[in-house]
Every structure is written in C-alpha cells, then in structure tokens.
Amino acid sequence: MQVRSLLLLLALILVAAAAEAGKNKKEKAKKDGSKCEDWRWGPCVPNSKDCGLGYREGTCKDESKKLKCKIPCNWKKKFGADCKYKFESWGGCSAQTGQKSRTGILKKALYNAQCEETVYVTKPCSSKIKSKSKGQ
C-alpha cells in the first residue's frame, strides 16, 4: 500500500514538473526582450539566387531583428510572396493571344507588405486536348 501511494506521489510530481517546464518554454517564446509593438518588416531576402531559405529584417524605433524566412523556388510571381490572393477560376482561352487569364483579390498582406488590391495573371493555353472520360 505504501509503495503504491509513493508511486502515485512520484507520478504527480513528474506531471507537475512537465507542465511547469512547458509553461516556461511558452513564456520564453513569447518574451523576446522587446517591448516595441510597431515592427516594420522588409521583404524576404534569399541567402543565394532568387529563392530558398533567407532572412527578413525588421525595425522598431532603435531596435532591429532578423527572422528566418523562405521563398518557394516555384514562386516567380511579380506581386511577391508576402501578398496572398484569392483567385477565381481560369477563364477561357483567347484565340487572339493564345493565353487564358484570371483575377486575384488581396486576401492578406504579410509583414506590412505593400500589395495591390487586385492582380491579373495570364498563362499560355494548353496545347493538349483533355478527354472527358477514358471509359467511353
């Protein structure tokens, strides 16, 4: 009986210690030593070439920070990786230009990015003819 209660007490101590350690990690993550709230962030600058891992610099009054960031290597859009848009479906193929287009409306601007409210993108029409079903 005493062994059981000793094991139970030990288990409760371990659970309490684990909960306290988790709380300390969260507090450290939130508290970075800065009291400034009006941070201005620059664009993500890749370490090499035009995509991949990089950093973003931020300033607030006389403080500055660098955050890690990533630009996907398939991201070649002129409106930047910090501007997120909701796009409609692709339109039909234009016989005159050989391209199809669609419009995107700004959904979110990350890190105070300067984004256009509406963007228009085009791409070449596919030369392949898609069949509706192969079973027929």
From TrEMBL:
Highest rank taxon of the organism: Eukaryota
Chain ranges of the Pleiotrophin/Midkine N-terminal domain: 23-79
GO MF, one annotated term: growth factor activity
Signal peptide limits: 1-21
Domain (Pleiotrophin/Midkine C-terminal) ranges: 80-135
Entry-linked PROSITE patterns: PTN_MK_2 (PS00620)
Keyword annotations from UniProtKB, A to Z: Developmental protein, Disulfide bond, Growth factor, Heparin-binding, Mitogen, Secreted, Signal
GO biological process: positive regulation of cell division
GO CC terms of this entry: extracellular region
Cellular localisation: Secreted
InterPro entries, alphabetized: Midkine_heparin-bd_GF, PTN/MK_C_dom, PTN/MK_C_dom_sf, PTN/MK_diS_sf, PTN/MK_N_dom, PTN/MK_N_dom_sf, PTN_MK_heparin-bd_GF_CS
Gene3D superfamilies, per the entry: Heparin-binding Growth Factor, Midkine, Chain A- C-terminal Domain (2.30.90.10), Pleiotrophin/Midkine, N-terminal domain (2.20.60.10)
Family: Belongs to the pleiotrophin family.
Functional summary from the UniProt entry: Secreted protein that functions as cytokine and growth factor and mediates its signal through cell-surface proteoglycan and non-proteoglycan receptors. Regulates many processes like inflammatory response, cell proliferation, cell adhesion, cell growth, cell survival, tissue regeneration, cell differentiation and cell migration.
Official protein name in the record: Midkine
Originating gene: Rihb
